[in-house]
Amino acid sequence: MKVHEAIVKVREDVGAVRKDGRNTQQNFNFRGVDAVVNAVSAAMSKHGVMVFPSKVEHRDASKQLSGGKVATAPVLIVDYTFIGPEGDQFVAQVPAESFDLGDKATAKAMSVAYRTCLLQVFTLPTDDSDPDADTYERAQRPQPQQQGTDWAAALVNAKGNLERLTALRHTAKHAGAPDHYMGAVEASIQEATPIEGVLANA
Q1: Rg (CA), the chain
Q2: pLDDT the model gives residue 148
Q3: Whole-angstrom Cα distance, residue 58 to residue 138?
């Protein structure tokens, strides 16, 4: 029996692996590596299937936690080699990550990788609801409210200064200031514009 045929036999014997574990801190159910290994080990032995990690790529990383602590958060890519009863084999590659405040982060990531590999290679049903059954909206960051320009104060501050008034006219025009305001700016510009020529002495 070839390795792919043995994989099918194992799948037929195992059935679903449910989420029987419970995380009481974050309040969710999980399917641990022990549950998956316990579910498939007898069937793998029965049909002559062997698996082992044949290659591991490891990348160190860290993660800032909400309490201010920094956890070790490695990222792994693990190659698992499956060998069938006739000696033929294939390789399954699985990425995994985890984090831990102590020295268990890599061991946790390896457990995640092994569990994921077994679930996917044997295509074990999980009795989970379909991910498409629920939809979620990503929270949007509130946009800061833009404060409107105090046009009246800007005009008062620019009174008598032709350079400021000219700049204010440009800014107000592009900002869509009301017509009556633009008229007031134009009047102020006229008042601040020096009269050319020299007045004759009476």
Answers
A1: 36
A2: 61
A3: 31
- Specify burial of residue 100 (Cβ count, 10 A radius: 0-12, 13-18, 19+): middle
Number of domains observed in the structure of the chain: 2
pLDDT value, residue 56 = 94
Residue 113: half-sphere exposure toward Cβ, Cα within 13 Å: 29
Give the three-state DSSP class for 67: coil
C-alpha torsion 82→87→88→91, nearest 10:
20
Pairwise CA distance, residues 148 & 156, whole Å: 16
- pLDDT tier at 118 (50, 70, 90 boundaries)? very high
CB 49 within 8 A of CB 117: no
pTM for this entry: 0.57
In a domain, 40, yes or no: yes
Look at residue 22 and tell me whether its pLDDT is greater than 50. Answer: no
Residue 20: inside a domain = yes
Q: Could you read off the pLDDT of 129-185 as tens digits, one per residue? A: 554 444 555 555 555 444 567 878 888 888 888 888 888 888 888 887 888 888 888
Element (DSSP H or E) covering residue 76 = strand 75-83
Within this chain, do residues 19 and 118 fall inside the same structural domain, yes or no?
A: yes
Domain containing residue 122: 3-127
